[in-house]
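1st attempt posting a full record on here, be nice pls
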Amino acid sequence: MAGQKQIIYTETFLGSFFKNTSKGKRPSLRFYRFLTVILCMLLFVFSYRIDIQVLEGSLVGSRFVGFHLIDPFIALQVIFAHRTFPVNLLIGCLTIMFLYMLASGRIFCSWVCPYGTLSEIGEKIHLMLIDKKIIKKRQRLGLKTKYVFMVFFLLLNLITGILIFESFNVVGILSRFFIYGATFSIFWVLFLLVIEIFFSRRLWCRSFCPVGATYGLLNPISSLKIKAKSDTCNRCGNCVVVCHVPEILAPVFSKKDTKIYITSTDCTLCGRCVDACDRGSLTFAYRLKNLV
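the predicted structure (as tokens):
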């Protein structure tokens, strides 16, 4: 962005659910993401409460119209803790990995995970408090910490034979809270949210969550990507302002290629950068269509 005047991108939280287009205001990608998360949780709730049997279980392990779906990190925990390879577990894990390879691994974090949605609300409060000078802007933790957490908990599984991380897994805690009702562990989620509001923006998703880290390993080989067209980019930096992992956008500004695909394991395909780009330089691209 050297030599370019950076435009400060601002928006209200409610305003971020809509985008100005040549055809007037249209729902933004954030609108569709929040809607997807809500609909997913409602399917779980209705399947349990009124027994429609569409999406049963929780986001840790579920069954969709008869097909088993197992979170890859819970599968790793079971394998390390019990030193076995249960067939149903592997089938469920491979099924969901295949589905996310067709899409994008960490798309789970922004389009399915309820804590990702809750964390975005906390992020907006955090930025508002900084703007009002109630709290100070702090240096964010790096992106590699979550892999340390991943290895740490897997080693604990191996040593103890207990799925210790599941006591801290906000994905499982929140989904069970919405489906089955209140549990004491919800206070852990609220504690994390308070930390993110007052101390560090999107701390859990960015630097600690091994669930997101596991899904992210599928990103480089998955089909759906953010594509950047550097020849139409004016280096305004609006995409960097809204992204909670702006490091992944560095290739957009540093590479000379006309078309750049964001393949980082930290990209959640939330689409905030796409919505913020008023020149259409950032778009979703499904690379499988080139093979058809």
